[in-house]
User: Fold this.
Amino acid sequence: MSTSASTLSITSSSGIYAVPKLTETNWVEFKTKTVMSLRAQGLACHLDGTVKTPPYLPQECDKDNRLVTLIADKSRNATETEIEENHVLLDAFAVGV
Assistant:
């Protein structure tokens, strides 16, 4: 795998954040460099459990029995833009961005 600012280097042997391939004898080095690399990329919240799943927008049936998506406080229907923004947040969370 190549090294870039947004990806974790798995096999590269250069650079302070290069993570070596895990073997039976290098657990401490592997863990230390993995944690350092994830923190450097701003992903430490995934390690310590502080990252929160974005909420799904609520859905319910309207008076004509059609399923509609609402904003979080359920005061009105969500716009297509709000629905798409919610999907982008949920997708980003799923891949750890």
Q: What stands out?
A: The chain has two domains: 1-50, 59-95. DSSP finds three helices and two strands in the chain. Residues 1-13 have pLDDT under 50 and may be disordered.
